[in-house]
Design a protein that fits this description.
Shape: rod-shaped
Radius of gyration: 21 Å
Strand content: under 5%
Helix content: over 70%
Number of helices: 2
Number of strands: 0
Largest sheet: none
Order of helices and strands: HH
Distance between the termini: 16 Å
Length: about 100
């Protein structure tokens, strides 16, 4: 591997690490919104029939934000694995091929 390829792989690893930080921030926002959904659901379900729609809305918030958090977590796991492979190639410790555009 020549120096130009190493620089390119190093830059790619840095960009992916930065993207992973942003994805992690969005995952945390999704988890916080899920907790807010729990609060809305509790309030809607305990204050009588007139707030039933608020409880249903809270359940929808919980389901949507939990699904988003799960998808983002999967992306984080795969992204970390990919950055690890790139760094492994840069260290010369593997024969893994990484196809970068």
């Amino acid at each position: 591997m020549n120096a130009n390829e190493k620089r390119r792989l190093s830059a790619e690893a840095k960009m992916q690490a930065h993207a992973l930080k942003i994805i992690n921030r969005w995952k945390n926002i999704a988890l916080i919104s899920s907790a807010i959904g729990v609060t809305i659901t509790y309030y809607g379900m305990t204050n009588g029939i007139q707030n039933l729609l608020l409880g249903i809305f809270g359940i929808i918030i919980i389901a949507a934000s939990s699904l988003i958090a799960v998808v983002l977590n999967l992306g984080l796991k795969n992204g970390r694995r990919n950055v690890g492979k790139i760094l492994n190639i840069l260290d010369g410790g593997g024969s893994d091929e990484v196809n970068l555009p």
